[in-house]
Amino acid sequence: MEKQVPQRVGLLQGTLDMLILRTLLYGPTHGHQIGKHIQRTTNEFLQMQHGSLYPALHRLEKRGWVSAKWETAPDRNREFKYYRLTDKGRKQLVVEESQWKQMAEAVARVMWPAAEEN
Amino acid sequence: MNWWQFGRRDADLERELQSDLDLEEEVQRQNGLAGEEARYAARRALGNMALIREQTHEAWGWATLERLAQDLRYAVRQLRRSPGFSVVTAATLALGIGATTAIFTLVYDVMLRPLPFAQADRLVTMEEIAVEWSNIYPTLPVSANHFTFWLQHNRSFDSMAVMRQGSAPLGTDGRPLQVGVLTTTPGIFSVLRVQPQLGRIFALEEAQPGNEHVAILMYDLWREQFAGDPGIIGKTMRLNGFPYTVIGVMPPSFHMPSVLGPMGNANRPLPIEVLEPLAFSKERLAEQMGDLNYFGLARLRPGVSVAVATADLDALQHTISANLPANEKATLSVMLTPFQEQLVGNNRKPLMIVLAAVAGLLLVGCVNIANLLLARAVGQKQQMAVAAALGARRAQLVRMALRETVLLAVAGGGLGVLLAFVTVPAMQRYLPAALDFRGPLHLDWAGAGCALLLAVVATLLAGAAPAFMVSRTAPNEVLQAGSRLASESRGSRQVRRVLVGLEVAVSVALVLMTGLLTASLVKLMHVDRGFTTEKTMTAVIDLPTMSYPDDQPRAAFYREVLERMDRLPGVEHAAITSVLPLTGDSWGDMARVAGDNRPVTQLPLESFRWVGPEYFSTINLQLIAGQFFTQSDWGKDVAVVSEKTAKSLWPGKNPVGLQFTRGDRSKELPFTVIGMVADARTISLAKPDPMLIYVPYWYRCEQTAGLVLRTRQDPSEMAEAIRQTIWSVDRGVPVPTVRALSGMVADSVANQRFEMDLLLLFAVSALFLAGLGVYGVVTYSVVQRSREIGLRMALGAQRTSVYRLVFRDGLFPVAVGAAAGVGLAFGSARVVSSLLFQVSPYDPALAAGAVGALFAVGAAACLLPARRAAAVEPMQALRAE
Fold first, then answer.
1. What are the residue boundaries of the structural domains of chain A, listed by start?
2. Of B462, B480, B371, the residue nearest B412 (C-alpha)
3. Are residues B600 and B715 in the same domain?
4. B336 and B449 housed in the same domain
5. Which 3 state secondary structure label does DSSP give B136?
6. What are B389-392's contacts with CB under 8 Å, separation 24+?
């Protein structure tokens, strides 16, 4: 049976994809690290369960923006699934970033018109 | 995405999530949580695992498949909960789909499958029409003379050929093999666009008398009789006793249909295995209005229609007619028919009727299932209402309602295909002889496609009504109505009654149709045929041409055989005849009585038979006047005529002692009539024989003869004695086929019997299903109305009036349906009437019988629920709420 999906997720979902791609710009990382990184960087502002990262990661992989591989972690004797940015993913990040910027500016112009005049 | 990756990818995701949990647990432990608590905290941080998995699957594109699997699991669970319903439904569908597929395969093979020749749609058969004879022979085979003229002057054909099909002994060394032979003009190869795989086709000079002893073998004969000898070309074989040079072998893909036409339906012609050239003698070619003997086949030029080609040949026929001598005046034209249509012949209609009947049965089955599903849907109303209240959309509700139907259709369809696969090969023997040349019949893609289509149609037919009902579920109404009161809506009950009416209508039509055909067949088998079959054996004798080139040695052979047969113990009578009863007709000729000087073409046409003296006593043809032939008439030109012949040649006179000549042989000595026999039905049981004239075999006899024996003992023991007697005269005669005459009578109606058997099966099934339908509806309504019935009884209603109530409820749709069914059958009367024998399609007794059968079944179906209703305890029913 289909799940009823709240509409705000549509916005968040796109945002999450961008955040993941941005995080991977630092280098290959596994899911847990990505989650921790986003939480830490936003000062725990985004209270997301990092489980929701995985569907997003798999979606990105299917689209060819990231590639995944099981590799042994450098600091411990255990394999993790490492994700890395592909060339296609890099281009996508640029696109999403510019779209996000345009949108933020548009929203800002409506919300704080005075600030714009200054 | 491949299904075998499912497990692997899922395990991979599992491992990935687990490692996330492990890491998170470590983090939590570092934050100071201990053991268990750290693990719980990690799980909380990760979130709902099942949801994550589902969302990831969605990202992979698996969701649709998963939903399907879920539907399947659900449907299986639902069906397992009611095994009776599931088995009945799946079996109904399997039978309906299987039977329809099997019949469709037969129909497809006969009527739709293209003939295995290049551009087969351009092949047409050619026949002649002579207006003067068209009342007896609507069409005639082609004459050599006319064919030659067409060949030279036509503008519409790529190529044309004429041919004759026969059989001949192959080999010499005692008991040779009888094989089918096609004697054909060389044009056949360009007409059919085929070439031998070894050797060459006939040269033109090989179609000249004296050069025609060359043969082309069919592939199977070459493999079986000549061990596939690759060096066979140029070798000599014996055919008809003569040495023939083998000049070619046809490819395995080439099969030649029988061109004998519908004649002789009690004897299947031997498959054609040898081709030899047809050489016309000068006398043949000179015969302007005789020798109408050949099967014509031609290939139309591209872009030329049948109508244009007909006009072309009609113009040539006009020229021929204009140049006929005065004593042979005839008005000629042609009849061109697409080859396939010609081969299908009169088998089209019975096949279509059987197909319609089986489709009707399938329809009844589907309606029945729809009815059962509707009842179930009412039962599941609550469930649906809850789902709707919880936010399920209309499409989802319909999907919920349809998934069981789909599963049933898939199961039924699968079983049906299996059933068809098993039954189709058994239908081979019901193929028309002319079309039984393409190898074994089997279920192919056309048939399987048909089954698939039927399964889809069945799902839609059976599932539409319940789905529609479910899609209109109004949760408030249902949920507030309270559980016990949840009853069937008036609309749904109405739909169910209409469905039962439909079932009954189709069943009545089927039963009536079956009744008509059965009555026809019974009448046909009991018609006074004018001859007897008890203890009578027949055999077909084929003499090799070389040892028996003309009448004299043949007559001597037959005489010797008959004398030896007479000496066999247990033989009462032995005779030969040119044509065995019910195997067709062969020799048509005109009788000219003294003083009749009309042109030949205007003389009355009779069927001639040459027979042995004891022919009449062997099959008990009744003598009306004069006497039969006797051995003492040997050499004399005497004749026995049928009553019909006597009445039309010499109205009002006793024919005995009168004379006639064969129309075109006016110079021969006249025949003297010595006896008159009763009319019979020796050509077809369905209609009386035309005018018949019997002449003795010493006047004329051919290479092929039918032997008839009446015995005192069990005739089945005679077969070997008959063969041995024939071989004791000449070992070079091929193995004769020995059969009982009664078997040949039965075989002549084998097709009708097959149709009747099938229809009977379908009709009984339809009756059963209709009964089941009535039972379902009535039982359901009794359960629904038990409170009402209880109330009525509490108020003083008698049990008999309860019975009446239930019967009225159940039999009303039966009555309406029966009326519609009789209307349906009467409406299609025109289609069936040509298949009936001495039975009117409007026969009131049979119509009443069919309706009566349905009422009986309907009443039987009402009985059980009615008893149940009458047994309702008023207090219990009222308190139950």
1. 8-117
2. B462
3. yes
4. no
5. coil
6. B389/B475, B389/B479, B391/A4, B392/A1
Strand partners, B593: B660
Q: What is the DSSP letter of B108?
A: I
Are B312 and B351 found together in one domain?
no
Whole-number Cα distances in Å, B198 to B181, B246, B252: 19, 10, 11
Residue B655 and residue B755 in one domain: no
Q: Which long-range contacts (CB under 8 A, 24 or more apart) does B31-39 make?
A: none
How many angstroms separate the CA atoms of B333 and B320, rounded? 10
* Distance between CA atoms of residues B273 and B220, nearest Å: 8
Q: Residue B137 and residue B339: Cα distance in Å, rounded?
A: 20
Q: A71 to chain B: which residues are within 8 Å by CB?
A: none
Tell me whether residue B23 is in a domain. yes
Q: What is the pLDDT of residue B267?
A: 59
Q: Would you list the DSSP string of B451-478?
A: HHHHHHHHHHHHHHHHHHHHHT--HHHH
Give the single-character DSSP code of B110: I
Closest C-alpha to B294, from B312, B279, B309, B304: B279
Give B1's contacts in chain A (Cβ within 8 Å).
none
The Cα–Cα gap between B612 and B697 comes to 6
Single-letter amino acid, residue B851: V
User: Structural domain tally of chain B?
Assistant: 4
Residue B70, domain member (yes or no): no
Where does A8-117 sit in CATH, by number?
1.10.10.10
- What's the average model confidence in pLDDT over B682-686? 88
Answer whether residue B296 shows pLDDT above 80: yes
Domain membership flag for residue B209: yes
Report residue B468 CA to chain centroid gap: 39
Domain extent, residue B57, equals 3-61
What's the one-letter identity of residue B75? A
* Length, in residues, of chain A: 118
Strands B242-249, B214-217: pairing kind: parallel
ipTM: 0.81
Q: In the 8-state DSSP scheme, what is residue B686?
A: T
Task: Give the SS3 label for residue B566.
Answer: helix
Q: Where are the alpha helices (DSSP H) in B260-305?
A: 282-286
Residue B591 CA to residue B873 CA, distance in Å, equals: 88
Q: Report yes or no: B301 and B158 within 8 Å, Cβ to Cβ.
A: yes
Q: Are residues B653 and B780 in the same domain?
A: no
Q: Which residues of B68-80 are buried (b: 16+ CB within 10 A; e: fewer)?
A: eeebeeebeebbe
How near does any CA of chain A get to the CA of B413, in Å?
Answer: 27
**Chain A contact for B66 (CB, 8 A cutoff):** no
The beta strand positions in B493-547, using DSSP E, are 536-542
Within this chain, do residues B556 and B674 fall inside the same structural domain, yes or no? yes
Range list of H helices, A3-112: 8-24, 31-41, 53-63, 87-111
Using an 8 Å Cβ cutoff, are B404 and B75 in contact? yes
pTM value is: 0.74
pLDDT tens-digit readout, B729-773: 988 888 778 888 988 888 888 778 888 888 888 888 888 888 888
CB pairs A-B closer than 8 Å: 65
Summarize pLDDT for B546-556 with one digit per residue, the tens: 889 899 999 99
The per-residue pLDDT for range B422-463, each reduced to its tens digit, is: 888 888 877 766 677 777 888 888 888 888 888 888 877 777
Q: Looking at the domain assignment, is residue B302 inside a domain?
A: yes
B313 and B190 both lie in a single domain: yes
Give the Cα separation of B239 and B170 in Å (integer). Answer: 5
Contact B19 A81 (CB under 8 A): yes
Separation of alpha carbons B449 and B82, rounded Å: 30
Which positions in chain B touch A80 (Cβ < 8 Å)? 19
Answer whether B874's CB lies under 8 Å from B795's CB: no
Measure in Å the smallest separation between the Cα of B45 and chain A Cα atoms: 5
Residue B364: is it exposed, middle or buried by C-beta count within 10 angstroms (0-12/13-18/19+)?
Answer: buried
Q: Is B13 an 8 Å CB contact of chain A?
A: yes
